[in-house]
Write a structure and sequence with these properties.
This protein is α+β, with helices and mostly antiparallel strands and 336 residues long. It has 17 helices and seven strands.
């Protein structure tokens, strides 16, 4: 089994495996795949190895968006407070809702299948959720899982949070499931992007098990661990992190300099991972632009400048190329 496979936390997966959310045939198939790859449940937990999301594609070869959504929501219903490896202690000891949500910063430590983008505003905190599995169905599964699991964890730690919503960029499954019904009023489909929104008045809601000292120490450990692992992280992930930190970065040369490699090495390493700098940058800019345009209080010109566009017209043309809509049309659609 490749240790760098994009996946999910092992304990969370085993909770799903031992639940009634999966049928016996699927469970047997997962166990067969584990045996074929020379691993088992105990080994996964002991070595804290991400469970590859590709296993879901192997078990469900016809996995479509509807089935992926149902699986993601069912998966999230099994989420427990101590299911998330190094994120579990700070999760439980967080003092407020915003401290819980901001733990998504350290998501790469437990899953490389998804990345968050944060946009604070006067209206609250919006967190964009983007899958990076290279498989549309699995992307939907992991986004639905992460977003709905976070809603569940917030309810556990801070009480019912009816104003915190999960918005998914695809259409609702043809048949409504009990998992959707459990999130009624908080789960919305056909959104312009996939994101979690926490209103401003909910960000500082106090958590039940707040322990400021434990939280502070846990965050320090997470920062050290993330820094230590940066040298073994895929080049694609490292480029995405740099773009997140410096949204206006415009060239591969700038990124190569930050990574202390030549442009030819950067190009070769990204090619080995099946992508290019241009593809990563375009994907990042599209996701960031859509997320920021959700906040109507921010002028389009300001968003364009923050993303490195000196000319609003160039940004508008690029956005229309990505989405088929101009920035103003996108905002109008969202408002409607």
């Amino acid at each position: 089994m490749a240790l760098d496979d994009a996946g999910v936390p092992p304990l969370a997966f085993l909770q799903l495996l031992h639940s009634q959310a999966l049928d016996p045939h699927a469970i047997a198939r997962f166990r067969s795949i584990m045996a074929g790859e020379g691993t088992n449940e105990t080994t996964l937990v002991e070595h804290d190895v991400q469970v590859p999301l590709r296993w879901f594609r192997q078990v469900y070869p016809e996995l479509d968006i509807d089935q992926a959504t149902g699986l993601g929501l069912a998966f999230a219903e099994q989420a427990q407070l101590m299911s998330f490896g190094p994120l579990s202690l700070p999760l439980v000891s967080a003092g407020s809702v915003v401290e819980i949500v901001e733990l998504l910063t350290y998501l790469p430590l437990i899953s490389t299948a998804l990345s968050p983008q944060f946009h604070p505003s006067d209206h609250g905190l919006t967190v964009g959720l983007t899958g990076h599995t290279g498989d549309p169905g699995l992307d939907c599964l992991v986004v639905a899982y992460c977003g709905s699991a976070l809603l569940r964890l917030l309810d556990m730690l801070a009480g019912d949070m009816p104003t915190v919503t999960l918005n998914l960029s695809w259409s609702a499954p043809a048949s409504r499931t009990k998992h959707e019904e459990a999130l009624a009023g908080r789960l919305f489909f056909d959104a312009p992007a996939s994101f979690l929104h926490v209103p401003a008045d909910a960000l500082n809601d106090v958590c039940r098990f707040a322990d400021p000292v434990a939280y502070r120490l846990a965050i320090a450990d997470l920062q050290r661990t993330l820094s230590h692992r940066s040298g073994t992280t895929s080049f694609s992930e490292r480029v995405r992190r740099l773009l997140e930190e410096y949204p206006g970065t415009g060239t591969g040369q700038e990124v190569a300099d930050e990574l202390s490699v030549s442009t030819s090495t950067l190009k070769r390493r990204l090619c080995e991972e099946g992508t290019t700098f241009r593809e990563l940058r375009q994907s990042f800019l599209r996701e960031r632009a859509m997320l920021r345009l959700l906040d109507r209080s921010v002028p389009v010109s300001e968003i364009a400048a923050d993303l490195g566009y000196s000319d609003l017209t160039n940004f508008s043309h690029a956005f229309k190329r990505w989405t088929g809509q101009s920035p103003s049309e996108f905002r109008h659609t969202r408002s409607s």
